[in-house]
Structure formats: C-alpha cells, structure tokens
Amino acid sequence: MKHNKLDDLNCSIANALDLIGEWWTILILREAFFGTCRFEDFQHHLGIARNILAARLRKLCDNGVLKRVPIKEGAKRHEYKLTSMGRDLYPTLIALTQWGDRWLHEEGAPVRFIERATGDDIADVAIRTKQGRELDARDLALIPGPGATDETRERLHLLQLAWEKHNGGSR
Amino acid sequence: MKHNKLDDLNCSIANALDLIGEWWTILILREAFFGTCRFEDFQHHLGIARNILAARLRKLCDNGVLKRVPIKEGAKRHEYKLTSMGRDLYPTLIALTQWGDRWLHEEGAPVRFIERATGDDIADVAIRTKQGRELDARDLALIPGPGATDETRERLHLLQLAWEKHNGGSR
DNA sequence: TTCATTAGTTGCAATATGCAACTAAATGTG
DNA sequence: CACATTTAGTTGCATATTGCAACTAATGAA
Description:
- The structure is a homodimer of 171-residue chains.
- Chain A has 171 residues and is of the alpha+beta class.
- Chain A has three domains: 1-88, Orthogonal Bundle (Arc Repressor Mutant, subunit A), CATH 1.10.10; 91-125, no CATH class; 136-168.
- Helix content of chain A is 46%, strand content 14%.
- Chain A has helices at 12-20, 25-34, 39-46, 50-62, 84-87, 90-104, 150-168, and strands spanning 66-70, 78-82, 111-115, 127-128, 134-135, 140-144.
- The termini of chain A are far apart.
- In chain A, 35% of the residues are buried.
- Chain A binds a DNA duplex (30 and 30 nucleotides) through residues 1-2, 22-24, 38-40, 43, 48-54, 75-78.
C-alpha cells in the first residue's frame, strides 16, 4: 500500500511505521534480536518470500536500523546486524511481546526474558514518571512538544477541550 | 497479504501482529488513544479508505481490542472504545513513539506525554529487572517459558550455544 | 577446478488497498 | 411527524503489494 501520507504527518508513530511498519519487518527485527544475521537464516526461520526479505533488509539498512557488515575481516559475504538505532527498539518489541503473552497466551509465555548475568526476570514494561511512579493510560495527557506543528497544536488543544467537557465537570 | 503461517508460530510477537500488525491498525489505535471513537472521525483524521477502516475496526472488535458501545443509553449509533486489552497496548505505543522521537525527530518530539494530575513528564520506556535495575538489550537472555513448544525450546537452546561460542570464551 | 551454498533478482499470479460513488439507517430540525 | 443531513458503512473497479518458483551470479570449501 502507499503510505505517502504518513511521512509528512507530524507524528512519531506514523514516521516510525513508515520505516518498520510493513508486514514482516517487525518479525525480521525479532529474528535479529534473536541473533539471526544471515539472509538464508532469516528466510528459513520466517518462511518469508526471498524478494520481500531482500527489499525489507535493504530498507532497514538504508534507514540505519540494520547495518551490513563483512562476516569477517576482508570477506565479501556480509551479515545484517542491529545498529544502536535498531537495538533501541528492544523496549518496543518486548512491550509488544509481553502484551501478546498476557492476552494471547494464557497458558504461559513461549519465551521468558531474563538478565543473563543474574538470571533475574525482567519486569513488565510500564509507563512511569521520571520519578519512577507507574501510571495508567488514563492518567496521561498529551501536550505539544518542541517539534509540534501548528496543526498538531490545534489538534491537541481540541483534545484537551473534549477531555474537560467529558471529565472536567465530574471531578 | 496472507499470514496464515503466523498464527501457529509459537511467538507472541507474531501472534500480536496477527491482530494489530496490519497497515493502519496501529494508527487507528493511536487515534483511539488520542480519544477518537467515531467512524467518521477516524476516517477524517487518518485519511484512510472507508472500506479498510471498516474492516480494521471490525477485526479489532472481533479480537477484543476495541468494543462497540452505544453513544448513549438506548442509542443505536455506537462508538469504538478501547477495552482493557486495548489500553494495555499503551506501553508499546509509547515506546514506539519515543523511538520515533529519538531517531526521527531530532528537532524535538511533536507530542509530549505528561501525567495529567501533576504535569510530570513521563520517563523513557525501558527494560528493567523486577527490582527496577535498567538493562541494555545485550544484557538479556531468552529462555523457554511455560508455553514454549519443543520447537521453541530447541531454537532457544541453539541460540544459547551460539552465544556461548561467540562471547562465552572472551569473558 | 568443481560443486554446493549463499544471496539475491525476475516474471507472473494471487491478494490487499485506495478511491469514489452508492446505500441505508439514525438523528436533528421545523 | 416529515424531511434533510449526518453517520456508518458497502460495492466495484483500478492500482499496488506480496508470494511463489525458477533463475543467476558470485563466494568459498574440497
């Protein structure tokens, strides 16, 4: 599909999805987090069509999420490794995994994440204040950030008014 | 595309993407978190084709991420509201937003999330141990969970061996 | 040198999406 | 209560994306 509308939307989710939102891309990244780095291995583990895989890997490299590096010094073959930009998606991927674990795998998670050094389980990813207080979705408000366009400001302002109308009086 | 291979994969990400991984779905959910709940409003804000929107909303409702509720007592018109399953995607969405903010909006985030009651900024979503210690992607290991199939166990075992071969000696 | 493996590319068939016009019911208005 | 308008979709067709399988070219191992 054509998402030519997305890249100029003033929204980080839309912009992020422009890079990693296509079918397969997230699964390719999951594989990368699992340690897969060769074309054939991605193809084999995911069962993805080879042309699609090639296209997705190219796009991820072009955008700096993955990098192509020689397998060893001087080799012509290369492998795909996560960049720091790519590794920085780990919280997102784990949050999504935990959601799937909670709601789609009541018999228990297929995979557990632990700290390698200690064996400690990781906690559920949560939204917190900078002081560490955990927040519920409904405790949040959205306000324009430094990169907000006038349109975004307008939108968020209307949002705030709508919220006040609904909840402002009854509190 | 047909992802008939995904739903039987023993992987929460694949299973989650089966529900919410299609183009537009995440943006529809973002809108829902912004407070949008009517068909026409989703359509107008996103510029999505009406038939696709109808299909996505139906799927999200069928799977319990959204629910259709009457606009008011006894009304025949309805609106789409996040269920608790849907609200539980907030950490994932915010993690993705923050990733986009960091890597695609160096001029600053379009939107800031704050705690409504206090105005406090929220922290970057991070992976932590249950004790609250923050972890890097590379500190993690994956082990089979209670819902792991034999295939998953085998896969994770090979992963562990590969890791030891690479890093085990040099530590 | 020879052969298997790896990493793709190409062409075509099957699917999914975008667009715009159409439908039908619910609601607001006089 | 009748009528116009808004809302929430559906339908059909053109376009774009994906899947599949066969093909190619280069590497690397024996």
